[in-house]
């Protein structure tokens, strides 16, 4: 009996039902982790697996189980990262993350996992509605320049928070920079 081993090319030619059905390769893991600025320890904590497993996978000295690969993919998807294989076989990383800055009262109440939406307030300024905690929080205006301007929150955005960086501010009391995964997408090649 002849046994045929699947090559990465065989796997990529499969027509997946969803992004989650696509394979996850070690280079994908390294690229996605780098994009988020995560250490192997950060990813291990988010995926709830051992750091040694990630180290072996990324160095290609071991192949994780399907369960572990799904946990890794879930951790990345919750942080707004999706992996795609184009028709010509090229791998791409879709960075689906956006950010916003919350100001003042209730700014420090938002945590990872909260569902948020962005809408116009009474004075036409954007506000963040934390649907999980049922609070409306003032937002800083979109920055006027810089490379991250296109990924700043827009009216109508909805998403799930994956990172919060809070600090005290003498003018606003509390400022919280929120990273979240909305429904809009932008691509960044990883091949």
Adjacency order of strands in the biggest sheet = 3-6-5-4-7-8
Percent of residues in beta strands: 25-35%
State the distance separating the first and last CA atoms.
36 Å
Could you give the order of the helices and strands? HHHHHEEEEEEEEE
Structure classification: alpha+beta
- The stretches of 5 or more residues where confidence is low (pLDDT under 50) are 1-20, 184-191
Helix content: 10-25%
Rounded mean pLDDT is 82
**Over the alpha carbons, how many angstroms does the gyration radius reach?**
19 Å
Q: Supply the number of structural domains.
A: 2
- Count of β-strands: 9
Number of helices: 5
Apparent shape: elongated
- Major sheet size, sense and barrel closure: 6 strands, antiparallel, barrel
Description:
With 191 residues, this protein is of the alpha+beta class. The chain has two domains: 19-95, lambda repressor-like DNA-binding domains (434 Repressor (Amino-terminal Domain)); 98-182, no CATH class. Helix content is 24%, strand content 30%. β1 (81-85) and β2 form a beta hairpin. α3 crosses α4 (51-58) and α3 (40-47) packs across α5. The two termini are 36 Å apart. This is HTH cro/C1-type domain-containing protein.
Give a brief description.
The protein is of the alpha+beta class. Helix content is 24%, strand content 30%.
Topology:
Layout: H1 8-13, H2 26-36, H3 40-47, H4 51-58, H5 66-78, E1 81-85, E2 91-95, E3 98-103, E4 115-120, E5 126-130, E6 135-139, E7 158-169, E8 173-181, E9 186-189
Antiparallel strand pairs: 1-2, 2-9, 3-6, 3-8, 4-5, 4-7, 5-6, 7-8
Protein name: HTH cro/C1-type domain-containing protein
Domain HTH cro/C1-type: 30-82
InterPro entries: Cro/C1-type_HTH, Lambda_DNA-bd_dom_sf
């Amino acid at each position: 009996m002849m046994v045929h081993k699947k090559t990465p090319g065989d796997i990529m030619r499969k027509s997946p039902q969803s992004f989650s059905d696509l394979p996850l390769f070690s280079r994908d893991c390294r690229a996605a982790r780098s994009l988020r600025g995560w250490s192997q320890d950060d990813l291990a904590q988010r995926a709830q697996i051992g750091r040694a497993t990630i180290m072996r996978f990324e160095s290609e000295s071991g192949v994780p189980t399907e369960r572990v690969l799904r946990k890794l993919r879930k951790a990345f998807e919750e942080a707004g990262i999706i992996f795609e294989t184009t028709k010509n076989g090229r791998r791409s990383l879709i960075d689906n993350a956006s950010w916003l800055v919350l100001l003042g009262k209730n700014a420090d109440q938002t945590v990872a996992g909260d569902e948020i939406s962005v809408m116009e307030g009474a004075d036409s300024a954007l506000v963040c509605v934390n649907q999980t905690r049922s609070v409306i929080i003032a937002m800083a205006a979109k920055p006027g320049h810089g490379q991250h301007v296109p990924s700043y929150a827009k009216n109508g955005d909805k998403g799930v928070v994956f990172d919060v960086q809070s600090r005290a501010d003498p003018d606003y009391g509390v400022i919280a920079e929120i990273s979240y995964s909305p429904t809009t997408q932008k691509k960044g090649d990883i091949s």
